[in-house]
Write a structure and sequence with these properties.
Elements lengths: L2 H6 L6 E7 L9 H12 L3 E8 L3 H13 L5 E5 L10 H8 L2 E2 L1 H15 L9 E5 L2 E6 L3 H24 L2
Helix pairs in contact: 2-6, 3-4, 5-6
Amino acid sequence: MPPNDHQAQKVACVDCGIVTVSDTRSPDTDTSGALIRELLTTGGHRVVGYEIVPDEPAGLRERVSAFCTSGTCQAVILTGGTGLAPRDTTYETLAALLDKRIDGFGELFRMLSYREIGPAAMLSRAVAGVFRGTVVFSLPGSTAAVRLAMERLILPQIGHTVWLLQRS
C-alpha cells in the first residue's frame, strides 16, 4: 500500500481523556485543558473524561491507568508536569507505565518549539507512547505548547495512530 493510502486509514472520531497535572489549576483556570477539549471537539473527536490531578506519581498513575483500562478511551492527553522543577514528575510516571514509546513525538515537539521559543525548548520533557493499547500524549502546561502539539502533531495523526493500535 502506498504511504499516502496507508496514512488515509484512520478512526474518524477518537474517544479521548484529558488530564491536567497541576497543584494549582481548577476547572475555571485550566486554560490548557480547555484548549485541548476545544481542539479535539472542533476536530471531530469526543472527550469522554476530564480530570485535574496533583503532580503526585501515585494519583497520576491511577488516573492514566483508569482511562487506559476503561474500554471507553482510545487516547489520553495530559498537560503539565513535564518541566524540570522538583514537583514535575509526569515524565517519570509515564515513562514507567508506557509499553511502547513514540520517541518521534517528543523529538518533533522540541524541534517545532525551538523554532518558536529557542533553546528553552530543550527543557521540555514532552513524551508519547502506548499503554495497554491506548495512545498517551504528555504536553507541557503552557497554552502555546498545547496549541503547537495539538495542531501540528496530535490532531493530524491521532486517528491514524488509533487505527494502527486497533489492528492488533
